[in-house]
Amino acid sequence: MSKSKELVFQKLQCESDSSQLIKAISLRKPPPPEIYGVITDILCLSLHFISVSFHWIPRDKNKTADCLAKQALASEAAVMNPSLMGI
Predict the structure, then answer these.
(1) For this UniProt entry, which segments traverse the membrane (predicted)?
(2) Which residues pair with 50 in a beta bridge?
(3) Residue 63 pLDDT
(4) Which structural domain, as residue segments, surrounds residue 9?
(5) Based on the domain organization, do 23 and 47 belong to the same domain?
């Protein structure tokens, strides 16, 4: 969402294989404590778009995106903690 905001997109369709995440966003109720920060970030970023929709997709349809997200998180962790890279 941050990149979409940076690119000045006005409409966004987000998909996730986490039913807990999609339900928490869609219901607009207080989320479980373990995902509170993520939901708060998503809802704050949502304010920058004219239209944002959130949809659940089956995990087997999300393998490529899941792999890319894990790679990005690993890269971020390595930048934040160079000892993970053996530096």
Answers:
(1) 35-57
(2) none
(3) 85
(4) 1-56
(5) yes
